[in-house]
Amino acid sequence: MVIRRSGLVLGATAVTLSTIAVAGLVNLPQGQALFKESPKEIVDEVWQIIYRQYVDGTFNQVDWQAVRKEYLDKKYTDKEQAYKSIREMLKKLNDPYTRFMDPKEFKNMQVDTSGELTGVGITIGLDEETKKLTVIAPLEDTPAFKAGILAKDVITKINGKSTEGMDTSEAVTLIRGEPGSQVKLTISRSGEKPRDYLITRAKIEIHPVDYSVKQTPAGKTGYIRLKQFSANASKEMRDAITNLEKKNVDGYVLDLRNNPGGLLFSSIEIARMWLKDGTIVSTVDRKGVVEKEAASGRSLTEKPLVVLVDKGSASASEILSGALQDNKRAVLVGSKTFGKGLVQSVRPLDDGSGVAVTIAKYLTPSGADINKAGIKPDIKVELSDEQRQNLWLKQRDKLATLQDPQFAKAIEELKKEIAAKGNVRAERK
Q1: Residue 295 lies in domain
Q2: Is 340 a catalytic residue?
Q3: Do 61 and 127 belong together in one domain?
Q4: Statement to judge: residues 352 and 326 lie in one domain
Q5: Mean pLDDT, to the nearest integer, of 32-50?
Q6: Share above pLDDT 90 across residues of the chain, in percent, rounded to a whole number
Q7: Which helix (H) or strand (E) is 85 found in, with range?
Q8: 326 is catalytic
Q9: Which of 44, 153, 285, 326 is labelled catalytic?
Q10: Chain centroid to CA 68: how far?
Q11: Among 271, 308, 309, which residue's Cα sits nearest to residue 292?
């Protein structure tokens, strides 16, 4: 499998997805033509995509040929019946990330090219073990973020409707809405009683990268906060590193905390800005074929780097942090990452609906499969949920300062890395 820019997203299904360039429908084998002019057409179209592309050639021990016969033997009077059958068909795979979206849901999933979206600002997915609707991470400075929603929160109800058995597409439709309108999310958090959050929807402008120069005990530090891997994240990251290099920073702290991931190509492009050489990521498809993406020899800086991660760092964040860790390019500080190691291809269908299909899993350069396991930081600095809420919501002025325990530890390690690099230079003279 070749990693391409089009249609590849990582891990979680997002309420607030970045723009996705969707790929075309695969060619169909002879003798399995679509049922034109019939609601059965869309059923078979989805079946064919799964048949050709799904990551597991056994279809998770499901007789996929028998499934085709079962659902094409049915009579359909309208597309709504076909849509219902498709959802039932895909549930047989027991894969929360392979899902069908009707035309409205598919449209809602996409963000327009202006970089704005309407919603509450959370990334959600179904937990693979519990099948519960789970928050991957809130996007920074969005309504959900300001309301206090945290990574790993379980959404038990949406406007009073139970989410038990609900797929992410339906959840997206219920959560999104017009700016100024409200949605009530009932949240279950570990060790606490369920609580209702009334959140006002808003139009959200996405700026994936913030950066600044900070005077710290490590010296002149370039601080870069990467919020998500959207279509324009790599350009903004390049601009950030280039500008910070001009200011002669001594080293960098890259903050991936609460970054839920996004586009696969974005994580690869950004990794190449930090890595001079080495493997970035390997992908394994249904045939067991491994394709590797490597550094291009055109890194923008070789200065010391420390990366901040936490349980809200998922998917593309884990590809980037895993590549930097395994290649010994950076020290990882914080807590274990979320654990999303799957790649989906998002495909439009003929009637305006769409389907997301899990087509591969990815491995870090060392060959580690982090799905469900996450990436362990080199230096562990755990924060309780209360500490995280205080830091990210109530005391934002302390974030990325020496009063931020994870950032403070990152600076401590960066100082060591800068000193070590200086000693190596001295020895070489």
Answers
A1: 1-109+206-423
A2: yes
A3: no
A4: yes
A5: 77
A6: 62
A7: helix 79-91
A8: yes
A9: 326
A10: 31
A11: 271
Confidence at 9, pLDDT banded by 50, 70, 90: low
Secondary structure class of 46 (helix, strand, coil): helix
Spatial CA neighbour of 133 closest among 124, 141, 142: 124
Identity of the amino acid at 381:
V
Check whether residue 290 and residue 411 sit in a common domain: yes
Residue type, position 272, single letter: R
Query: Do the domain assignments include residue 9?
Result: yes
Tell me the residue type at 19.
T
- Structural domain tally of the chain? 2
Catalytic residue flag (residue 63): no
Among the listed residues 336, 340, 409, 415, the single catalytic one is 340
CA distance linking residue 326 with residue 81, whole number of Å: 49
Query: Looking at this protein, which amino acid is placed at residue 403?
Result: Q
Distance CA 329, CA 297 (A): 14
CATH number at residue 114: 2.30.42.10
- Which residues, in sequence order, are bridge partners of residue 281? 293
The verdict on 261 and 182 lying in the same domain is: no
391/395 Cα distance (integer angstroms): 5
Segment (H or E) for 332 = strand 331-334
Which of helix, strand or coil describes residue 210?
strand
* Residue 109 binned pLDDT confidence (cut-offs 50, 70, 90): low
H helix intervals, 228-278: 233-246, 264-274
Query: Per the residue annotation, which of 315, 317, 335, 353 is the catalytic one?
Result: 315
For residues 101 and 109, is the Cβ–Cβ distance under 8 A?
yes
pTM of the predicted model as reported, rounded to 2 decimal places: 0.77
Position 130: which residue type? Answer: T
Place of tokens 């923008």: 300
What is the phi-psi region of residue 262: left when phi exceeds 0, alpha when psi lies from -120 to 50, beta otherwise?
left
At 235 the pLDDT is: 95
